[in-house]
Amino acid sequence: MESLGLTRRAQLRKRNVLHSARLQILRLARINDAPEKIARGVALGCWITSVPTFGLATPVALLLAPLFRANIVAATLGAFLIGILPAPTSFAFLGALILGLNPKDVYTALSSFENLHQMGSELILAIVFFPLLFGAVASVGCYFGTLWALPRLRQRVRKPKVVSNF
């Protein structure tokens, strides 16, 4: 990895994020609940994280999980796993591009309330509506992806140990 020009600190940080994500996926596989409830929780966490909740995605997922009959732990793990990605800002910039707005204008508008007020309803549409839309699509993918992957993960995690008589 030294040939890529990454410093040792950057290598460790990259490894720590990947290692943390792997541990969270293993925790997800070890939850003792129905796969549908776990998938619902992951999808809820994914959707909540894509909405601009300004750092409150995990508490909101904790509060909404019982309302959707989702697994609470899976909802928080889903919010954490997807929270690694900068989803809300990416969705807002993508929405701005679809609306024909300049992404630099969106960035400057997000940095100041006066700028936000001047941009008007198009910016609100880009910041709120498109993350909701893209988050809904991503959460459907998370739901079906979790339903597909969970039995396979559980099978890998819970392999019976072979006892030798030797």
The rounded Rg comes to 20 Å
**Category from helices, strands and their pairing:** mainly alpha
How many helical elements? 8
Task: Give the DSSP E fraction (strand runs of 2 or more residues).
Answer: under 5%
Would you identify the regions where 5 or more consecutive residues have pLDDT less than 50? Answer: none
What gross morphology would you assign?
elongated
- Major beta sheet summary: none
Distance between the termini: 43 Å
Can you write the helix and strand succession as a string? HHHHHHHH
Tell me, rounded to a whole number, the average pLDDT: 77
Count the domains.
1
Helical residue percent? over 70%
Strand elements, count: 0
Task: Explain what this protein looks like in three dimensions.
With 166 residues, this protein is mainly alpha-helical. It has one domain (21-155). Helices cover 75% and strands 0% of the residues. Helix 2 crosses helix 4 (72-83). It starts with 7 loop residues before the first helix and ends in a 9-residue tail after the last helix.
